[in-house]
């Protein structure tokens, strides 16, 4: 056991004191892990849109002060009571949704929506005892999605940690904690395009490009990127996107444009914007008889999906996915191996790298739409 085991650790963390205000690097106290919890040293973390969204807290329940961050790679420092499968020194990726291995979802081969550890963005405390493990002079600082990786040390439920190959570079594979696995899994686990097939990707941000990477790996021959920002296409080519459609260039609905381009519709489509009209287009652009559309983007809370039932009766399938249908503990280690064997490329997602002290820059890059993933180095 590390000499710090069982003790409070003082370390640096980026605290969001208020919605939308720059994070402040503070010295925080991190309590030891309790039953079924693990304290980890974060080496690298990266920024995902969800951090920005809940930091802005526009229409979201504001939970502050809070430590954001949910894409990261770290090393186990100490484990709490009842943790048998992880030990100090193990390399792990924290995941915002968990796998208890005991609930009906975890026991089902078809689901990754664990009842116990499913994401709850309003909760700022650990599920075990309803307390926070972070404090400053005894005042609690709240957690975010059970991960809070914008801290040199954090405490995570064992069910939200994927134990990975210790040879995997954490400054690359940390992006597999959320966005990249989500897009990749949407294609490989849910859309499952056949070799030589056509795939339309709506939204060419990091998640959409990860979906494209999945289509490239699956051997799709036409990967059609759909985005209202023409700047995205140049970058998308690196991810196998070989055709581009900007809906703004046409008078007619984009589903009609795609149907004309593909002799009746694409074989698969993956929606990664969360825009409700894009979702409807993504569904209606798939070929009748066999087309499958997969929704990934998170819509506005009042959004309603409207389509004529004939579109379904004509044998189009609509699916949705959460975290690319990956079970965090059972499946993510193998995704890391896909990177290790060079089947999956991660470097092209990493557009920026900064030291922890400059973490606010990562928010600026993302808000300007300049970055895909910005890696934050915790050790300077
Ligand atoms: C998202 C997935 C959908 C709900 C909010 C969080 N994942 C991580 O960024
Ligand atoms: Zn995320």
Q: How are the SSEs ordered, and which strands pair?
A:
Blueprint: E1 9-15, E2 24-30, E3 37-46, H1 49-56, E4 71-79, E5 91-94, H2 104-107, E6 134-136, E7 139-141, E8 153-157, E9 161-163, H3 170-173, H4 179-191, E10 198-202, H5 206-218, E11 222-226, H6 232-236, E12 243-245, H7 254-261, E13 268-271, H8 276-284, E14 292-295, H9 309-313, E15 317-320, H10 328-340, E16 350-355, H11 359-368, E17 373-377
Parallel strand pairs: 10-11, 10-13, 11-12, 13-14, 14-15, 16-17
Antiparallel strand pairs: 1-2, 2-6, 3-4, 3-8, 3-17, 4-5, 5-9, 6-7
Helix pairs in contact: 4-5
Bound molecules: cyclohexylformamide and zinc ion.
Pfam families: ADH_N, ADH_zinc_N
Keywords: Cytoplasm, Metal-binding, NAD, Oxidoreductase, Zinc
Enzyme class: oxidoreductase
* Rg, alpha carbons: 21 Å
Instruction: Report the strand count.
Output: 17
The SS-based structural class is alpha/beta
Would you tell me the overall average pLDDT?
A: 97
The percent range for strand residues is 15-25%
Oligomeric form: single chain
